[in-house]
Amino acid sequence: MNRNIVEEIRAEIRRFQPQTLRKNVGRILHLADGVAFVDGLSEVRCHELVRFSNGVKGFALNLEEDRVGVVLLGDTSSLRAGDGAETTAQLLSVPVGPKLLGRVMDALGEPLDAKGPIEATERYPIERQAPGIIARQSISQPLQTGILAIDAMIPIGRGQRELIIGDRATGKTSLALDSILNQARLNAQGLESGDPKFRPVYSIYVAIGQKNSSIARTIQVLEEAGAMGFTIVIAAAAADNPANQYLAPYTGCAMGEWFMEHGQDALVIYDDLSKHAIAYRQISLILKRPSGREAYPGDIFYLHSRLLERAARLTAEAGGGSLTALPLVETQAGDISAYIPTNIISITDGQIFLDTELFNRGVRPAISVGISVSRVGSAAQTKGVKQVAGKLKLELGQYYELAAFAQFGSELDAPTQQRLDRGARIVQLFKQPMGQPLSVEQQILLLWSLQQGYGDDLPLRAIGEMRVSLPAFFGTHHQSLLDALGQASGFDAALEEQLHSAVKAWKQSLILPSLAAA
Ligand code: ATP
Ligand code: MG
């Protein structure tokens, strides 16, 4: 029981070291799209790297009685049937470590940026066993996305797996990217403060099957925000071969695991697993594996579960590191009951559902409150957030229901009208532009003020202004009060009293003139 778990994990890596594998040679029987069928490789292991006579590499995926299906990597146009092949006694592995931060790499960990070779001293196999139950502990620390609607209602904890799901162009990537930017911002702040207890979160963004232009834009956003220094980007674009798209998430995961196993925190984003499933389906069909639902091979569930199971929060004994995973999935016409979405919903600890209709109505981020959940994250919420966010989801749910009735124009009694007004203001507050993260203290302040009725007499369009000006006012005049809000102890009567007078002062100072103009 008290064996050192990190040692155990390292021993497991050693078990897979080259010397335990035997080499042998064979030749290509025939070639299909991106796959070579090879005979003679009787000693090959699944996922072992195979080298062909002209330098092309691949990895063994189908081990059959008389032949092996090898998935080819890179440019394969020079290969012909009859070419020689040899096993390399190496499992697919990628460089890992802190030197990777700031770099853009392909699915094999080769640099794609112009910053020279990757200076890593360690390599991890891309397929690993997930940490066992003894090495894990429950979620206890929040992963702040800076997005009010998420942190307040669907909180994510370090080590959690939370799915971001929605149709095309509903803001999935933006949400993930904003989370990375917020980590970078918090890291910079935390490291500057010199607090010895501060633990940075390193991010790994895995782009699968996206257009090159989208990936380039993402990298540009990260660079402009100064977040690249805390981030690793793995790119397997749509134009890349399916093998690379299939491998990319495992590569990103292995790189994240390095941080986790070294007692640090990492966040990995798989953008997105629908395209990953499609790449794997393509490979599987060429390998002639039997196809199942929606023509996906039967092991697609296992493929995703063994990837997402590798996210964890390790016990203090095992170093206390964590790997948080945010997989993204694209739905067709909001259908979350399709095969891949249901699979991944069942593997993750909750989902953030983005709704096209809300998005088109201007509610952005377009989070659908009713069907978004986080099953474990609230354990990691700070006391202050819990106090203000407790009833939020219920209130919003009731608001949406009432609003549906109210549109028939029936007479409404005063309490109903008041609930409607309050709900409309919460929705308005949750509309958060990209790249404008809010700190925990600011989030608590805003929600508390709204719940105390300070937004009720403001016109709806002033709520967006409030989201910016109220925290700014506190930043200038009441920084200590703002700091107190972020403390673990939550609210007490004295603090609330101070808050009341400060928020009143803010209303006097700023909003009233614009109210008058309304
Ligand atoms: P795809 O399916 O193409 O990958 P996606 O779901 O990842 O799309 P994004 O690319 O993140 O969606 O966003 C789509 C558009 O919505 C972008 O133009 C982005 O600028 C806009 N958008 C996303 N979030 C917000 C927001 N909070 N406020 C305003 N605009 C937003
Ligand atoms: Mg996207």
> How many beta strands in the DSSP annotation?
17
Whole-angstrom Rg: 26 Å
The first-level CATH class of the largest domain is given as Alpha Beta
Bound molecules: adenosine-5'-triphosphate, magnesium ion
The CATH superfamily name of the largest domain is: P-loop containing nucleotide triphosphate hydrolases
CATH topology of the largest domain: Rossmann fold
Separate helix tally: 16
3D shape = elongated
**Biggest β-sheet strands, sense, barrel:** 9 strands, mixed
Which spans have pLDDT < 50 for at least 5 consecutive residues? Answer: none
SS-derived structural category? alpha/beta
Per DSSP, what share of the residues sits in E-state strands of 2 or more residues? Answer: 15-25%
From the structure provided, what is the oligomeric state, counting identical versus distinct chains? Answer: single chain
* Separation of the first and last Cα atoms: 67 Å
CATH architecture of the largest domain: 3-Layer(aba) Sandwich
Residue share in helices? 40-55%
Write the layout of secondary structure elements.
Elements: H1 5-15, E1 25-32, E2 35-39, E3 48-52, E4 57-63, E5 68-73, E6 84-91, E7 93-96, E8 104-105, E9 122-125, H2 148-153, E10 163-166, H3 172-193, E11 201-208, H4 212-224, E12 231-236, H5 242-261, E13 265-271, H6 273-286, H7 300-308, E14 312-313, E15 322-330, H8 339-347, E16 350-354, H9 356-360, E17 373-374, H10 383-389, H11 392-406, H12 414-430, H13 440-451, H14 461-477, H15 479-486, H16 493-517
Parallel strand pairs: 8-12, 10-15, 10-16, 11-12, 11-13, 13-15
Antiparallel strand pairs: 1-2, 1-6, 2-5, 3-4, 3-6, 4-5, 7-9, 14-15, 16-17
The chain binds adenosine-5'-triphosphate and magnesium ion (MG).
